[in-house]
Amino acid sequence: MVKKVVKKKISNKESKAEESPQVNPPTGDLPVKKKRCYFCQQKSIPIFTDVVTLRRFLTDRAKILPKIRSGLCSKHQRFLTRQIKYARHLALLPFTPNV
């Protein structure tokens, strides 16, 4: 008894896919952890009298850090901005850096 060997026709797309599987090369970037909001973690709110905490969110040129760099949520970023401006008017924080 002789068995017949059935050859299956392979289309061009299938043959290319079998030859080299497409694998995305690693980018080399480290996974970035999303910053958590400082005030949500502490379960507190920014207060104008807490100058030490407010200075944490100012640059060396006394500018308010943007939300992306500070890692705050939108709610606390807006509230922090108001509190910093209020502390500046009460002369607790500087408007400009010391020269």
Q: Describe it for me?
A:
The protein has helices at residues 12-19, 38-42, 51-55, 67-70, 74-89. With 99 residues, the protein is mainly alpha-helical. It has a domain at 34-99: Ribosomal protein S18 (30s Ribosomal Protein S18, Irregular), CATH 4.10.640.10. The radius of gyration is 29 Å and the shape is rod-shaped.
Task: Briefly note the structural class of the backbone.
Answer: mainly alpha
Distance between the termini: 100 Å
What is the highest CATH level, the class of the domain at 34-99? Few Secondary Structures
CATH architecture classification of the domain at 34-99: Irregular
Order of helices and strands: HHHHH
Pick out the low-confidence regions.
none
- What is the approximate shape? rod-shaped
CATH third-tier fold name of the domain at 34-99? 30s Ribosomal Protein S18
The portion of residues forming beta strands comes to under 5%
Binned, the helix content reads 25-40%
Give a brief outline of the structure.
It is built from five helices and no strands. The chain is mostly helical.
Topology, please?
Elements: H1 12-19, H2 38-42, H3 51-55, H4 67-70, H5 74-89
Identify the notable features of this structure and list them briefly.
99 residues; rod-shaped; 30s Ribosomal Protein S18; mainly alpha; 38% helix; 5 helices
